[in-house]
Amino acid sequence: MSSNVTNKIKETFQVDIVGDQQFDWGEQHWLQLDPGNAELQPTVSVATVYPGAEQLSHMHSGFTEIIIGLEGETTHWCNERKIKLDKGKVGYVREGSQHRIVNTSQQQSSFLSVVYSTIPKPLKEVISSWDIELSEVAKLINLDAIVEKFAQSVQMTVTLIDTAGNFLTDKENLPEICQCCMQGKSGDCILNTATVERPMEQRIFHCKFGVSAIQSPFIINGRVLGYLGCGYGRLSTNITQVEPISDKFAADSAQEAYFKLNFIHRNHLNSVAETLSLVSASLIQLMINSLKEKELSDYRINLSQEREKQALLHHSLSQARLKFLESQVNPHFLFNTLNTIAQQAEMDGASKLASLTYSLSNLLRLSLGKADSLVTIEEELSYIKDYLFIQQTRFPKKFTVTISIEPEILEIKIPFMTIMVLIENSILHGFKDVRREGKLVIRGYKEGPCGVIEVQDNGCGIPDNIVAAVRELPNHEYDPPSLKGIGIKNIFLRLKHYYGELFEFTISRSKTGGTLARIVLPL
Length: 523
Known about the structure:
Blueprint: H1 2-13, E1 16-22, E2 26-32, E3 43-49, E4 54-59, E5 63-71, E6 74-78, E7 81-85, E8 90-93, E9 98-102, E10 109-117, H2 134-141, H3 143-154, E11 157-162, H4 176-184, E12 203-206, E13 212-220, E14 223-233, H5 251-258, H6 266-328, H7 331-347, H8 351-367, E15 374-376, H9 377-394, E16 399-405, E17 413-415, H10 418-430, E18 438-447, E19 450-457, H11 464-471, H12 488-499, E20 504-509, E21 515-522
Parallel strand pairs: 16-18
Antiparallel strand pairs: 1-2, 2-3, 3-10, 4-9, 5-8, 5-10, 6-7, 6-9, 11-14, 12-13, 13-14, 15-17, 18-19, 19-21, 20-21
Helix pairs in contact: 2-6, 7-8, 8-9
Domain Cupin type-2: 46-115
InterPro entries: Bact_2-comp_sensor_kinase (IPR050640), Cupin_2 (IPR013096), HATPase_C_sf (IPR036890), PocR_dom (IPR018771), RmlC-like_jellyroll (IPR014710), RmlC_Cupin_sf (IPR011051), Sig_transdc_His_kin_internal (IPR010559)
Pfam family, one: Cupin_2
């Protein structure tokens, strides 16, 4: 039946057949469309399905297939999608799906298969000034582990050898027939240390014992470093005779070992070949990058030491500036003076004035030296209360304050004056020109693995352009003029400095009026 099918294909399509495979369910013949541009054309074949035969479910890994009915009728299953393919009808099988074929009729059917690889094209060339030995680089990038992962992903045996024939992967993974061939040194592939032609480009190689494999060379600066091999299976279901491998491995034993090989479909082997080409090029680039990394390590160490010196110099300069400021305004003199005023006010019966002075003294004492530090929420609340006392004295009956902070939130650390700035914005901007009594609510509570801090008021509501500007703050180059003068961007930048990406900061306008500022931090 195969010769009849072959003659009919040649007569119909007027092209040569470059390969074929025989299966229990039928046969498949691959066409050579344009011998001069093999890399630019898809893989095209004619598949014939015998009457009442079925091709079992198989994975389409690395390629998409277009199918066109030629004669008879076949039923194709693409996962759960059913395709009835008769003459002239077109269907497709997507990459990554399970494909199954059934011919329930009493006559043979055939269809045209057009396969396109979904594997990205590999790098065309690699430029390097290094003389690289594959065995040395393999240790740098843990190459054997990478190769093992690749073997698992394509479900094929994979080998890696250098130009001297030394294995960089476990040769025990090879099938029995290959191991016996290597022991007898009778093979004609690159796994043998004998003088064998060393290919300079990737190829699908069929050895004299019927084993098919892909051989992909590692080439840098025109020099072959080694070979990545993949496959080591058989493309045919029936072979007449396998020649004896050695005196200890006769023809019958060789035949038996041959049929133990995994069966490989030609389309799968072609898609793996393209994948292997990409993997080889990527590994070459990885090798070069590893060597660059090794060469630059001393430079990085020196650069790191230089930056450390600069950081120490900058810190010393900052300390000198702080000492200069402290020498201009002695904080002890300031605190003593405020306490003297407060005591005198108490003696004169001006208790309100005394309380205000004490609150101001506490604010100055707590704030001095903490501008660039983290404080606990409990610590920040201590001077918030003094600040609120001063503001409520300044604006009597203007607003009321409710503070509700859960105990586990009090130990969270935040940049100094984070909550204070939000409260100040509510009082100075939110309650401005509002005749009703203002209500300021400060909440702190646990939400999953995070702590939430909220400052909410019932004031005039934050403008929409500021809400939009806060939303865009994660954009590093965004510098909205609408946020100048209200401290919002400063809060965001300081939170980002200490917490990186592990925080949320949002401001929204309530539907009923007022503003809600919300900060979420890890506990």
